Structure formats: structure tokens, C-alpha cells
């Protein structure tokens, strides 16, 4: 491998925070950043015990992985994420705002509680954790990278997800707005818009107590769905990890305010 290419993607000496990294897409991202040499702070709402399998899998690539348990939908918890990371690794360079929730509900049944719960995590925590991250980097006098995980729903509503689609549309605009102001501090802000990725969150939508007939019907439906995709397979967390590695690396240094769609072509269908 050409040395210049290796150096472009080398994250040795960098520290990344990955929210919602205990499973799913967050785990795929944390794993890829660790494989590129970064120290990784995983932040998630689940207990350290529930996160242990994920952390162990990341620890296969690095001995520089740590965990902070926090409910990010509560703004008062965000400061700890930064202070814990600084206390553990001494500095921060990359923030991946990945934690998010999605619940299917028709707009006629949408509750204020679900709206607030979704917006508080999916949009508000992204804004205020990014603000803390940017202020820390200004103080430390160095640049960095923010990578927000939006969704193809930021571009096209799926249906029965209006609170989620609104939060992700907000993340897309927040990415552009923060990028405009943070550039002068050497900080880039971009988002990745995934579509149809195989994660515990997506699998949970099927429900835990479905009948055999329902399970068979869903499998037939999902086979049809996969056939309809231009790339004819469902996305995996590492597909998003690959895009995150690009946005975290020097290879993307002149990109800010952008969005990378990683959906196997779903939006084309
Ligand atoms: N899976 C997909 O097809 C898909 C598509 C588009 C966008 N996304 C986005 O990607 C991100 C990850 O999705 P996923 O499919 O991996 O979900 P997931 O449910 O599998 O994982 C989400 C993680 O976030 C954590 N989390 C939930 N609430 C939290 C809170 N209040 N505080 C801290 N952590 C919390 C969970 O414990 C979990 O580890 C989300 O922002 C989601 O909207 C996913």
C-alpha cells in the first residue's frame, strides 16, 4: 500500500466520541475508527454490562476504548461526556453523533411525549453536544471533525415516522448551519444519511412477540425489499463505518456541510 494513502486514513493519536456505540451503526463506526488507530469513547444509555460485548469487539482493534453511560436526551448529562473523554484520553478530535430512536406511528396517533423524546435525543443532543465539543476544541486551539448520522428520511419521508423525519431533517440543516460557523475554527461538520441498515434497532421493529405466520410474511416482504434495491442487499453497520472513516480522515479535509447517502440506492427506487 502506498504510504500516502495509509497516512490519509491513519487516525493514530486522534480521539473519537461515538454516541450510541453500544450496538448497531454506532458499533460499526466505533470499530472502523478504532481499526484506523483512534482512541474511542463509546457513550450509550445501556449499562456497561449490556455494552460489554460491543466494547470487547472494539477492543480487538485497540486497547484505547472506554465507556461512558449517559442518557443523551437529557442536556445536563452532556458535559460529562466531554469531561470523561478528556479525563480518559487527554483530548478530543472527532465527534460522531449517532444515537437515535425511531418509532413507527401514524400522525393521527402521534403523542407530544414521543415527539419530545425523539427530538430531544435525535436533534437537541446533537446540537448541544456539538456545541460543547466545538467550545472545547476552540479552547484547545486545534480543529476537528463532527459526523452526524442523519437518515435518508432527512430527504424523503418514509411514512408513519413524522417525528423522526422531522428530527433528521433538523440534523441535516444543523449540519449545514454548524459547518458554516465552525469552519473558521478548523472544524468540519458533515452528515451520513443511511438507509435500511441491519441493526438491533431495525430488527426490534419486527416486535418480540410476532407469530410464525407474521414472521414468514415479514421475511417474504424483506426478500422483496432486498430485490428492489439497486445493490440487492441490506446495509451493514460497517458500510456506515466506512463512510465515517472517510469523514473522520484527512481524505475529507476540504468537505464541510455535506451529506453522504449510504443506502444501497434505496432513494433511487
Ligand atoms: N438502521 C437503519 O436502517 C438506519 C437508517 C437511517 C438512519 N439510522 C440512524 O442511525 C443511528 C443508529 O441507528 P441504529 O439502527 O444503529 O439503532 P439501534 O437502536 O440499533 O442503536 C442505537 C443505539 O443508541 C443508543 N441510545 C438510544 N437512546 C439513547 C439515549 N437516550 N442516550 C444514549 N444512547 C441511546 C441505544 O442504546 C443503541 O446502542 C440512529 O440515529 C438512526 O436514526 C439508522
Automatic annotation (TrEMBL):
Q: List, alphabetically, the Pfam families matched.
A: adh_short_C2 (PF13561)
Q: Domain of life, per the record?
A: Bacteria
Q: Which Gene3D superfamilies does the entry link to?
A: NAD(P)-binding Rossmann-like Domain
**Which residues are in coiled coils?**
none
Give, as one word, the top-level EC class: oxidoreductase
Membrane-spanning residues = none
EC id: 1.1.1.-
> Per UniProt, which keywords does this protein have?
Oxidoreductase
Xref: InterPro entries: NAD(P)-bd_dom_sf (IPR036291), SDR_fam (IPR002347)
State the Gene Ontology terms under molecular function.
oxidoreductase activity
Which PANTHER family does UniProt cross-reference here?
OXIDOREDUCTASE, SHORT-CHAIN DEHYDROGENASE/REDUCTASE FAMILY (AFU_ORTHOLOGUE AFUA_5G02870), SHORT-CHAIN DEHYDROGENASE_REDUCTASE FAMILY PROTEIN
Q: Which NCBIfam families match?
A: PRK07231.1
Q: Which family does it belong to?
A: Belongs to the short-chain dehydrogenases/reductases (SDR) family.
Q: What is this protein called?
A: SDR family NAD(P)-dependent oxidoreductase
Q: Which species is this record about?
A: Emticicia soli
Amino acid at each position: 500500500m502506498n504510504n500516502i494513502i495509509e497516512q490519509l486514513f491513519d487516525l493514530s493519536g486522534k480521539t473519537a466520541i461515538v454516541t450510541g456505540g453500544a450496538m448497531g451503526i454506532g458499533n460499526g463506526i466505533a470499530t472502523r475508527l478504532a481499526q484506523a488507530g483512534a482512541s474511542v469513547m463509546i457513550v450509550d444509555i445501556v449499562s456497561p454490562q449490556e455494552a460489554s460485548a460491543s466494547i470487547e469487539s472494539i477492543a480487538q482493534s485497540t486497547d484505547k476504548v472506554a465507556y461512558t453511560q449517559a442518557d443523551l436526551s437529557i442536556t445536563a448529562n452532556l458535559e460529562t461526556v466531554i469531561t470523561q473523554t478528556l479525563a480518559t484520553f487527554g483530548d478530543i478530535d472527532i465527534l460522531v453523533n449517532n444515537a437515535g430512536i425511531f418509532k413507527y406511528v401514524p400522525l393521527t396517533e402521534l403523542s407530544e411525549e414521543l415527539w419530545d423524546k425523539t427530538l430531544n435525543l435525535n436533534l437537541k443532543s446533537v446540537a448541544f453536544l456539538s456545541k460543547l465539543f466545538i467550545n472545547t476544541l476552540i479552547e484547545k486551539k486545534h480543529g476537528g471533525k463532527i459526523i452526524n448520522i442523519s437518515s435518508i428520511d432527512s430527504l424523503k419521508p418514509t411514512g408513519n415516522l413524522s417525528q423522526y423525519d422531522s428530527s433528521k431533517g433538523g440534523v441535516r440543516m444543523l449540519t449545514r448551519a454548524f459547518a458554516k460557523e465552525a469552519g473558521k475554527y478548523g472544524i468540519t461538520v458533515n452528515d451520513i444519511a443511511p438507509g435500511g441498515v441491519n441493526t438491533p434497532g431495525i430488527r426490534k421493529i419486527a416486535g418480540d412477540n410476532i407469530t410464525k405466520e407474521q414472521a414468514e410474511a415479514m421475511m417474504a416482504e424483506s426478500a422483496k425489499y432486498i430485490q428492489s434495491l439497486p445493490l440487492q442487499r441490506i446495509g451493514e453497520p460497517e458500510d456506515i463505518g466506512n463512510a465515517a472513516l472517510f469523514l473522520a480522515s484527512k481524505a475529507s479535509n476540504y468537505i464541510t456541510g455535506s451529506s453522504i447517502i449510504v443506502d444501497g440506492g434505496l432513494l433511487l427506487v
